[in-house]
Amino acid sequence: MLKKKVPLLLLIAASQLLIFGHVFSQSPKKLKTIIVDAGHGGTDAGAVGQYENSLRSKEKDITLAISQKLVAQLQKDLPGVKTIPTRTTDIYQDPREKAKIANEAGGQLFICIHADSGPLKQGRRQIGTHTVTRYKVSFKGRGKRKKRISTPYQSVEPLYEYFKYPLAINGTSVWIFAAHKTSDKLKAITNGGESFDIETDGLDSTYNNFNFQSGVGATVANIYMKRYQEKSDMLAVLVNDDIETTGRKSLGVNQRQKGIWVLQATNMPAILVETGFINNPEDEVYLNSEAGQQELAEAISKAVVNYKYQIENPNTVSVQDPNPVITASNAPSTITTPAFETRVTKEEKLIQVTNNRIKVDLYDDGDVDNDIVSVFFNKTSLVDKKALSDKAYTFMLDLTPGKNNELLMFAENLGNIPPNTALMVITDGSKRYEVRLAADLKNNASVRFELRK
User: Fold this and answer.
1) What mean pLDDT is predicted for residues 293-300?
2) Is 92 a residue whose pLDDT tops 90?
3) How many Å apart are CA 189 and CA 415, to the nearest integer?
4) Which pairing describes strands 205-207 and 196-198: parallel, antiparallel, or unpaired?
5) How would DSSP label each residue in 374-412?
6) b or e along 16-39 (b: 16 or more beta carbons within 10 Å of the residue's beta carbon)?
7) How far apart are CA 232 and CA 364, in angstroms?
8) What is the pLDDT of residues 301-342, one digit of tens each?
9) How is 294-348 classified by DSSP, letter by letter?
10) 3.90.550, 2.60.98, 2.60.40, 1.10.4160: which CATH number matches 340-451?
11) Which of 29-38, 104-113, 177-186 has the lowest mean pLDDT?
């Protein structure tokens, strides 16, 4: 019964949205307000450098310093966009307060700055010796006359000191709220009240007195929650890639299974950047340096600039057709090409076909876990940042005899279950081939087609 109701609700929701025609202008939505959050603060120090000879850094101080530089860099790179910090001094803010600040300010993007850590192993070493008095116990006599005699003696024993080993892991990672943890994100949307800002592909607008608690409203809220998930992932991928271009180790885009309040309770796309490991010596020095903090701020700001351009200049594939059939000749030319040439093409497969034109159906392989890919044919963009599912995304390939015909899959994220995996069903006339590909943030996967008559 539920399966029959959902399409109807979606249809009703779509019709409700179309009623407000002025809202759905074809003009792209402009990014006007960014919220930058410095993690922890005040009585909440966050992670602290605890390994031997560490700088004894406090996460709250590092996040504030990087956030202040990020705010300044965003104001420089995007002067027409309002950038609002949640805190500018060493004060404690409840995560719920931070989410409230972001929502009430009408934020359209939430960037949370943190520093990572982990459990430290304890070691010990001998630093000398010391003399202790011990007692040798003996007994004299028998029966009721038996007596216990303790004879003192001196013993020289080693003296130890204890310390904590530093973490071996280092690098920067980016986090978004887990796709299956949607309850708080939906609450942030449905509790928007009478002035909930609807994010559409049209002009900025506000629904007054719109009931998001109703059946239709709940469906609409789900639509925006999923849209926020996609945009959060888009920005996270861009940040990860720009961090990587600095030469710093990037650890990819992740979805934390344990909920992160500020990511789930904000009514906007949101990411959390774990700038480095405070208990790793290399990272701790980097995070405390002016140069390191500025480099991170510039990389994140560069990603935001790219994100702003992409959402304000959407590609030309029709949004009305969720599964367009495209070819190399009608592929959108406005798609921003990822830096796929900087990654190694590790997995290669060769298929011999007999037809000049073949069909490719693209699916998520195994569990549907939010894998997002781009696909290139002979270095020409065919599919841009497509979230794979159990429904086919179809495109046609026109092959050239005697030439290298290569279809390359570029992973935009790692999904919930790394690596990024896809199933390609290739139809060559009456023949059908199934090819499984796996890619990650370091390696591409490809299929080469050899045309034989």
Assistant:
1) 96
2) yes
3) 24
4) antiparallel
5) EEEETTEEEEEEEEP-SS-EEEEEE--TTS-EEEEEEES
6) bbeeeeebbeeeebebebbbbbbb
7) 20
8) 999 999 998 888 764 333 333 344 444 444 444 344 456 777
9) HHHHHHHHHHHHHHHHHHHS--SS-TT-SS--B-TTTS-TTSPPP-GGGSEEEEE
10) 2.60.40
11) 177-186
Residue type, 42: G
Q: CATH 3.10.20.30: does it fit domain 24-117+167-312? A: no
CA distance 176 to 166: 27
More confident residue, 200 or 301: 301
Q: Report the pLDDT averaged over residues 21-30.
A: 45
- Residues forming a β-bridge with 132: 155
**Single-letter code of the amino acid located at 117:** S
Supply 70's token pair: 């990020």
240 with 30: CB under 8 angstroms? no
Which residues are paired to 116 by β-bridges? 277
Q: Pick from 221, 194, 224: which is nearest to 206 by CA?
A: 194
162 Cβ partners below 8 Å, 6+ apart? 122, 123, 124
24-117+167-312 and 340-451 share one fold: no
Give residue-wise pLDDT tens across range 365-423: 877 777 888 898 888 888 888 888 888 888 888 888 877 788 999 988 887 777 888 88
Residue ranges per structural domain of the chain: 24-117+167-312, 122-164, 340-451
Q: Which residues have CB under 8 Å from 80's CB, separation 6+?
A: none
> What is the predicted pLDDT for the residue at 57?
96
Joined tokens for residue 4: 């029959």
Label residues 328-344 b or e (16+ Cβ within 10 Å = b).
Answer: beebbeebeebebeebe
Q: What is the pLDDT of residues 209-247, one digit of tens each?
A: 444 444 444 444 454 566 777 788 889 989 998 998 888
Q: Say whether pLDDT at 113 is over 90.
A: yes
Q: What is the largest CA-CA distance in the chain?
A: 110
Q: What is the share, in percent, of the chain residues with pLDDT greater than 70?
A: 75
| Contact between 319 and 223 (Cβ < 8 Å) | no
